[in-house]
Q: What sequence folds into this?
């Protein structure tokens, strides 16, 4: 009820819609737009603009590009997402989690040529957008669920550290070069040791960082980024610090809007760009998916994750065609829009139009903005990405997942951002396969005073039915674990306290049986039959039975050997083996019936 009461509009509880509204949610929003929302959306858009400008410029420089391209990467993606995006208030644009990947992809290919660097960034955005659109059309919106939280923690922490180290030279007032985190760190330390630090730049950057962090902690509703940037720009302008103290500034921005331009890159650079685009697609959609679902839940509506992927793709294509670079959702700017009262994507459109007006009529307004301030903005954002508590919690609760997180972190930090992303993906798949390959299984028995059948390793006092092995397998049966299943069943038979006559597999957790597993079941049935043991199944789901029928395995085992419950299987076994004296068993088991 609370979510419904908080729903911001009359169509908030609906799903993705039908017809054109299914693919172009912006039209549905426009049809249902209420006049009372307009002042709130416009006001929220003005507040958002104050954050979009410095953050966009800072992330552009973190990606290795001139600051102006951060504004180009903000304008048209916001408009594109307003048309195609299913989320009401999600804000897209340059993002700190992508900056390191973009820089690692395009800077080595550009060879110091800024014009070609911009073209590479544009093509990277186009490839990213194309992958997102194709994945959305193919309904692959689920794919990022493969990236578990521990692995995401690891690579996000690695990216944050990489970007943070890359921004420190801006605050210190000198340039540091190097390929990768280790070399950049060495160059940074050498620069400090050689006395290259510009202490005025350092004071500005440190002050801006302190302001952003202080306002975020004490006065979160006031945009600390705006306060820091405006204050730094005024100080540099009033005291002429660019000339007097050698403080590096942004300088006058080019006047006018970015032109439509298809990026022209060398064909031999496309494979490297494609690898970077794949990494960006996975990271961007993972972040966007989580963020859009979070705000949809708070707003009382639902979002189609496949449409979200398509919208993210269209926004990236728009960025690539208008001299921008790859973008994602923002976990810092979206809450700003929400707290400012945003109701629809008109907030983002307002922000885009304000930036366009800035470039058209006031391009010199930010010419004295110090690069140290932009570096501080990016570092503050990176600090918010770092989750030390989450990693410590993993260490306390599950050491194996802690190790996965650390390996992903080290892969990003030491081997490389793009390579680290793919290491994280490989780890996620390996962890998934390992758990399915070696799932938990148990031999079951009866425990006095407890209903049902229980794991004899958890209940050492449990008693097994004489001549009957009850075996539970907690996973689907497929090619990777079929032989393991067969081996463990035979081991359970060999370890039984009395010679086994029946083996009943508690198959409720078995949600699938592939062809390889069916062959393993056939071999198991043959092995047991030779030993005079009957193979049975209990609690198997009907769709799994249907598969066994198609494999001709259901008839081979016999329909009479498939039971709806373990209790029915035990009863059938007892009826068939009436020569056994069950009196003692039944007397002792009466309390557990």
A:
């Amino acid at each position: 009820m609370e979510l419904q009461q908080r729903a911001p509009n009359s169509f908030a509880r609906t799903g993705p819609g039908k017809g054109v509204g299914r693919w172009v949610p912006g039209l549905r929003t426009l049809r249902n737009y209420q006049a009372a929302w307009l002042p709130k959306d416009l006001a929220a858009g003005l507040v958002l603009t104050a954050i979009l400008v410095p953050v966009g410029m800072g992330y552009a420089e973190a990606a290795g590009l001139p600051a102006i391209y951060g504004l180009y990467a903000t304008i048209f993606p916001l408009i594109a997402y307003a048309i195609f995006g299913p989320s009401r208030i999600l804000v897209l644009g340059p993002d700190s989690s992508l900056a390191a990947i973009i820089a690692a992809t395009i800077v080595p290919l550009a060879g110091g040529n800024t014009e070609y660097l911009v073209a590479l960034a544009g093509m990277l955005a186009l490839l990213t957008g194309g992958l997102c659109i194709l994945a959305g059309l193919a309904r692959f919106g689920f794919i990022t669920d493969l990236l578990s939280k521990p692995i995401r923690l690891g690579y996000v922490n690695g990216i944050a550290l990489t970007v943070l180290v890359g921004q420190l030279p801006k605050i210190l007032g000198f340039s540091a070069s190097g390929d990768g985190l280790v070399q950049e760190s060495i160059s940074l330390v050498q620069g400090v040791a050689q006395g290259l630090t510009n202490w005025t730049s350092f004071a500005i950057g440190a002050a801006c960082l302190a302001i952003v962090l202080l306002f975020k902690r004490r006065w979160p509703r006031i945009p600390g980024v705006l306060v820091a940037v405006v204050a730094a720009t005024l100080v540099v302008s009033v005291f002429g610090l660019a000339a007097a103290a050698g403080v590096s500034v942004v300088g006058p921005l080019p006047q006018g809007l970015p032109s439509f331009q298809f990026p022209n890159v060398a064909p031999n650079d496309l494979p490297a760009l494609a690898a970077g685009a794949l990494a960006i697609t996975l990271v961007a959609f993972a972040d966007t998916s989580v963020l859009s679902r979070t705000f949809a839940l708070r707003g009382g509506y639902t979002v189609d994750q496949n449409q979200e992927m398509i919208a993210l793709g269209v926004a990236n294509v728009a960025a690539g065609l208008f001299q921008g670079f790859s973008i994602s959702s923002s976990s810092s700017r979206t809450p700003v829009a929400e707290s400012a009262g945003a109701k629809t994507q008109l907030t983002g459109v307002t922000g885009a139009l304000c930036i366009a007006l800035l470039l058209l009529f006031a391009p010199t307004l930010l010419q004295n903005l110090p690069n140290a301030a932009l570096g501080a903005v990016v570092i503050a954002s990176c600090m918010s990405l770092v989750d030390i508590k989450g990693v410590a919690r993993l260490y306390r609760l599950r050491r194996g997942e802690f190790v996965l997180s650390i390996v992903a972190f080290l892969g990003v930090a030491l081997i490389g951002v793009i390579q680290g992303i793919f290491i994280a993906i490989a780890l996620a798949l390996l962890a998934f396969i390992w758990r399915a390959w070696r799932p938990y299984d148990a031999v079951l028995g009866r425990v006095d005073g407890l209903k049902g059948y229980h794991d004899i390793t958890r209940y050492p006092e449990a008693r097994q039915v004489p001549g009957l092995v009850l075996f539970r397998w907690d996973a689907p049966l497929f090619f990777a674990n079929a032989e393991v299943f067969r081996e463990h069943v035979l081991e359970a038979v060999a370890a039984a306290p009395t010679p086994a006559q029946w083996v009943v597999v508690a198959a409720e957790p078995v949600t699938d049986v592939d062809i390889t597993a069916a062959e393993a079941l056939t071999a198991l049935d043959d092995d047991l039959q030779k030993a005079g043991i009957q193979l049975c199944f209990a609690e198997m789901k009907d769709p799994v039975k249907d598969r066994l029928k198609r494999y001709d395995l259901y008839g081979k085992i016999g329909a009479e050997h498939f039971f709806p419950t373990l209790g029915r299987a035990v009863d059938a076994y007892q009826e068939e083996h009436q020569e056994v004296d069950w009196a003692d068993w039944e007397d002792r088991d009466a309390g557990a019936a």
The CA atoms of residues 253 and 505 lie 71 Å apart. Residues 1-15, 587-593 have pLDDT under 50 and may be disordered. Strands lie at 92-93, 328-329, 441-445, 454-455, 468-473, 502-506, 534-538, 562-563. Residues 270-299 form the longest helix (30 residues).
